[in-house]
Specification:
8-stranded mixed β-sheet; 448 residues; Rossmann fold; alpha/beta
Length: 448
């Protein structure tokens, strides 16, 4: 799918270039993180394939950030803050007269997308953040950022002359195509045509000042945070932080180590994206009743910083092993591993609640505190995956739980009459992204 002709919108003194692809009823803004202009996206076959898939369910909106491609250049004195770039994106969305667009941002595009969602929720229906960060540079209260000296070294490597041979930076950012001459040739050309060397240096150096942590609590739109498990420049801790601090955000770790979304395996995250935005994916869909259990480690970011990366990874491995054991004992099946939690399904809500109690006890032995949400409803099944509004509802119920609590939706108590479970009311709530108001109950399994 080729981008349409370039259009311009003016925001302040800057003209921003954008283009539209397709005519689906759902709008999706794709905002890339680097300096390759959208006019070259379709020249790399995997990226063209990615655009085709997105365009199968959405009208795509592409935009060049300040200093890139056909948009106006930047200066060292005015490189464009994340807030200003977020405002540029708002100007683009206003120009296309959207009733609201899903926003998919990756890498360096993530902070401006957060700015946009926080400032203009009227323009954003869904926010999807891929391999991103809230703050690039390390600090005492953000220990997984880049050391300032390493960040400068990384900028120098990015700006260095490229060839059609692998280099250490390519091996770090895109290991699956580090020796692929087609990718190397395209990326080199994209960098040359996307921004001059001085503009590139300005853009990359400006990332050192980015810090949108204070905005995360103000993001009110449904948010999906995706991160590749073995990414090295921006490790998963960045996205775990985003998901933990954006209210109601769902986090999923993906296999792989490539930084850009259009390199490496795309099928899984594209399915996640389509399901999240339009409630379906390209796979065969069937509907059935299921009980879903969402679990989450409370305070995972702070605990990871306290114990260190190695010990935290050991704890997560133990968490995963204990979770698998509990699920097997109670008839559950894990659907998605979310880094510091999981989505599982069970044949009955009683089995799910009993499994939740076992999980909380098991994790306490590791000094990990869990919160759990349970809901029974119809789901869409695609192979081994599930989706649909019921999944979102279960996640929102979990978001209300305190450490050590098992909360269930109002659909659950009537289904467990006669079981050894008591319930305490926790009020009626509006669950973000779910129509209506829902009663929520605290489940208290009786000791056997």
């Amino acid at each position: 799918m080729e981008p349409g002709y370039t259009r311009y919108v003016q925001n302040g003194a800057h003209h921003l270039a954008y283009a539209l692809l397709g005519d689906a009823p759902v709008d999706l803004l794709y905002f890339g993180g680097g300096i390759v202009p959208y006019s070259l996206y379709a020249d790399y076959p995997p990226m063209a394939s990615m655009l085709d898939r997105m365009g199968s369910f959405a009208r795509l909106i592409l935009a060049d950030r300040r200093g890139v491609g056909a948009s106006d250049p930047v200066t060292a004195e005015a490189p464009g803050t994340s807030a200003e770039i977020g405002d540029d994106l708002a100007a683009v969305l206003d120009a296309v007269a959207t009733d609201g667009a899903a926003v998919f941002a990756e890498g360096m595009g993530v902070p401006p997308a957060i700015e946009l969602a926080a400032a203009r929720p009227d323009l954003v229906t869904h926010l999807v953040l891929f391999n991103g960060f809230a703050k690039l540079t390390r600090s005492d209260d953000y220990p997984f950022g880049l050391d300032p000296s390493h960040r400068l070294e990384l900028v120098e490597q990015i700006l260095a002359s490229k060839s059609e041979e692998a280099d250490p930076l390519t091996a770090l950012l895109t290991p699956s195509v580090a020796n692929d001459p087609v990718y190397l040739r395209w990326y080199n050309r994209g960098g040359q045509l996307g921004a001059s060397r001085s503009s590139s240096e300005i853009l990359f150096n400006a990332q050192g000042a980015v810090d949108v942590r204070a905005l995360l609590g103000h993001v009110s739109v449904p948010t999906l945070v995706l991160h590749r498990r073995n990414a090295r420049v921006f490790p998963p801790e960045h996205s775990r932080y985003l998901a933990e601090h954006i209210p109601g955000a769902r986090y999923a770790e993906l296999p792989g180590a490539d930084q850009p979304p259009y390199v490496g395996d795309m099928a899984l995250w594209l399915d996640e994206l389509e399901q999240f935005v339009v409630g379906r994916s390209a796979g065969a869909v069937s509907r059935s009743l299921a009980t879903m259990l969402f679990s989450d480690i409370v305070g995972s970011t702070e605990q990871a910083a306290l114990v260190g990366d190695r010990r935290w990874r050991e704890l997560l491995d133990r968490h995963d092993a204990l979770t698998a054991s509990v699920l097997a004992r109670h008839g559950g099946r894990r659907i998605t591993q979310t880094g510091d939690g999981a989505l599982s399904v069970f044949p009955t809500p009683t089995q799910a609640i009993e499994a939740a109690r076992s999980l909380i006890v098991a994790m306490a032995s590791l000094d990990l505190r869990l919160r759990v949400g349970v809901h029974t409803g119809e789901v869409e099944r695609r192979g081994d995956n599930i989706g649909g509004l019921a999944v979102n509802l279960a996640a929102r119920v979990m978001d209300l739980a305190l450490p050590g609590e098992i909360l269930v939706s109002g659909a659950v108590p009537a289904l467990t009459i006669g079981s050894p479970i008591d319930y305490e009311p926790r009020g009626t709530h509006e669950l973000r992204g779910v129509p209506g108001r829902w009663p929520v109950w605290r489940a208290v399994p009786r000791s056997s």
